[in-house]
From TrEMBL:
Known EC number: 4.2.1.11
Residues engaged in binding substrate: H152, E161, E282, D307, S359, H360, R361, S362, K383
Protein name as annotated: Enolase
Cofactors, names only: Mg(2+)
Annotated function: Catalyzes the reversible conversion of 2-phosphoglycerate (2-PG) into phosphoenolpyruvate (PEP). It is essential for the degradation of carbohydrates via glycolysis.
Gene: eno
Protein location: Cytoplasm; Secreted; Cell surface
Length: 420
């Protein structure tokens, strides 16, 4: 039974304020959660409530904190913390808007996640087991964003994320080691080619060298994987997040100094997939172009991931499924605002043969909920940045802990999209 709820304003990895909530139960359970925040956000995401006053450059979250303390808390106290769906529904009704703009998705999500953790803690079981049961044993393949571009970096790369996936590992701890080894070789390779100013990192811990083209980035990855002693395309494969809404303006995609239409951009991706071992592309087209997603899913035999287009929303995902737009869902709990709704989206994806990638945001914190969620869902994939910077490594370290605790696990490896 929930005894107390405490909310406060803390800061995220970009130094921006965000909401932390603690939930305490009568059975001596305790759960706390901090919500993350995106930079290249989808238009249809649930609303992050910001104060718009002077403090924190207009980004304060005191209103969201106050909504937890004075509106949500009195309605939730006394409930059994295991009643996740009821509690989430109460908050959805209290808010009453389609995008959680009255109370703020940041207020609602912080409570939703902290309630789940408090329930797990009361029952004295780890979060992944509380959420997933005894059938949760798949360790996800990490998509490690080692070269940052787009809105996450101060360089000219149009595509946002250049990721490595250690599919040839046998465990998550080995995958983290392989990723970390490549990351350090990459640092050396970048320094030799572009000088020491080029090894500064972007928002997600990846390097942000002064590159202009995707090929330059992919060549750096290829060289680093080989120099680290791994077989490119076998041990380690590549994934991209284009985040195309960010370079779509006036009906064209602005890439590498050119104005491309949908077909030309498709051909650009096709050429990259032919040249490099790219197994996954996220948001290849802008967030309203379901048709473009359908075409690329049909024409390229790889994983096509919907992030800004689906925004972890079952209605938008359902439309995507009907149109065969994409074949994987990027799952971001703060895009929808409650744990129950995020799990609904994951289940809808699984039922329809879509892959699920549990994901961080570019603005993160020490909160590790998504590591547990990835294991709970047997998602087979997690996207949580480079193997560097505390807010990213917190998730990798949590996965390593879970793997050790479980003992017998199955690393998704090459079957990352459908681990079963
Ligand atoms: P965001 O980026 O958190 O800034 O939205 C992550 C992504 O696009 O996947
Ligand atoms: Zn994305």
């Amino acid at each position: 039974e929930i005894k107390d709820i405490v909310a406060r304003e803390v800061i995220d990895s970009r130094g921006n304020p965000t909401v932390e909530v603690e939930v305490i139960t009568k059975g001596k359970g305790y759960g706390s959660a901090i919500v993350p925040s995106g930079a290249s956000t989808g238009t249809h995401e649930a609303l992050e409530l910001r104060d718009k006053e002077q403090r924190f450059g207009g980004k304060g979250v005191l209103m969201a904190v106050e909504n937890v303390n004075s509106i949500i808390k009195p309605e939730i106290i006394g409930y059994d913390a295991r009643m996740q769906r009821e509690i989430d529904n109460i908050m959805i009704e209290l808010d009453g808007t389609p995008n959680k703009s009255k109370l703020g998705a940041n207020a609602i999500l912080a409570v939703s996640l902290a309630v789940a953790k408090a329930a797990a803690s009361t029952a004295k079981i780890p979060l992944y087991k509380y959420l997933g049961g005894f059938n949760s044993f798949v360790m996800p393949v990490p998509m490690m964003n080692v070269i940052n571009g787009g809105k996450h970096a101060g360089n000219d790369l149009d595509l946002q994320e250049f990721m490595i996936m250690p599919v040839g590992a046998l465990s998550i701890s080995e995958a983290v080691r392989m990723g970390s080894e490549v990351y350090h070789v990459l640092k050396k390779v970048i320094e030799e080619k572009y000088g020491k100013n080029a090894i500064n990192v972007g928002d997600e811990g990846g390097f942000a060298p002064p590159l202009k083209t995707s090929r330059e980035a992919l060549d750096l990855l290829t060289e680093s994987v080989k120099k680290a002693g791994y077989e490119c395309g076998e041990d380690i494969v590549f994934a991209l997040d284009a985040a195309a809404s960010e370079f779509y303006k006036d009906g064209y995609y602005h890439v590498e100094g050119k104005k491309l239409n949908r077909e030309e951009l498709l051909n650009y991706y096709k050429a990259l997939v032919e040249e490099y071992p790219i197994v996954s592309i996220e948001d290849p087209f802008h967030e309203e172009d379901f048709e473009g997603f359908t075409i690329i899913t049909k024409e390229l035999d790889i994983q096509i991931v919907g992030d800004d287009i689906f925004v972890t929303n079952v209605e938008r995902l359902r439309k995507g499924i009907e149109m065969k737009a994409g074949n994987a869902l990027l799952l971001k709990v703060n895009q929808i605002g409650t744990l129950s709704e995020a799990i609904d989206a994951a289940n809808l994806a699984f039922r329809n043969g879509y892959g699920v990638i549990v994901s961080h945001r570019s603005g993160e914190t020490e909160d590790t909920t998504i590591a547990d969620l990835a294991v709970a869902l047997n998602s087979g994939q997690i996207k949580t940045g480079a193997p560097a910077r505390g807010e990213r490594t917190a998730k990798y370290n949590q996965l390593i802990r879970i793997e050790q605790e479980l003992g017998i696990t199955k690393y998704a490896g090459k079957k990352f999209r459908c681990p079963f």
